[in-house]
Amino acid sequence: MRLLGTGLVIGAAMIGMTVCAVASPALSNELMLPLAGKVTTYIPSNENGGGVPNVTRGQALGVACADVNPGDDVRVIMKVESVPGEAPSDYDVVLATRQRVTQGAVHIRVPNIPALSQHTVKVKVLKKDSQGLHACDAGRVKIV
Is residue 109 part of a domain? Predict the structure, then answer.
């Protein structure tokens, strides 16, 4: 699976909660993760290839995730990474609450939380089904 995000702060215990999906139209400036390419270093590379893209708060973000389908119980989380040169954050994890699931992708908006500016986050899609919890890693983005 791959992922995207918009959000509010959550604790790890809240990951299993139900999703409130809000449909939003796909935008032409939507950044789709993961990026293609080869990973060579942690920063500025993204573990799924290519450089770590910059995104702005409120920007549309899509996560390609082959195992998701409309109606699936899906969460998109953004975990703040400890990156040299970036100040500590007030947040550890942010849950994307404005999301739309399509065949093979989750579309979200980057959380409009000022304290996330100038921080690198790891994006992950979590899907809960009868077989358990499955994760789809989308890599990292830097919120500017």
Answer: yes
| Per-residue pLDDT tens listing for the chain (144 residues) | 433 343 333 333 233 332 333 333 445 678 888 764 332 223 334 555 568 999 999 999 999 998 899 999 999 999 999 999 999 999 999 999 889 999 999 999 999 999 999 999 999 999 999 999 999 999 999 999
Domain residue limits at 111: 8-143
Q: What is the tally of structural domains in the chain?
A: 1
The model's pTM is 0.70
**What is the 3-state secondary structure of 51-82?**
ECCEECCCCEEEEECCCCCCCCEEEEEEEECC
User: Are 38 and 71 in contact, with CB atoms under 8 Å apart?
Assistant: no
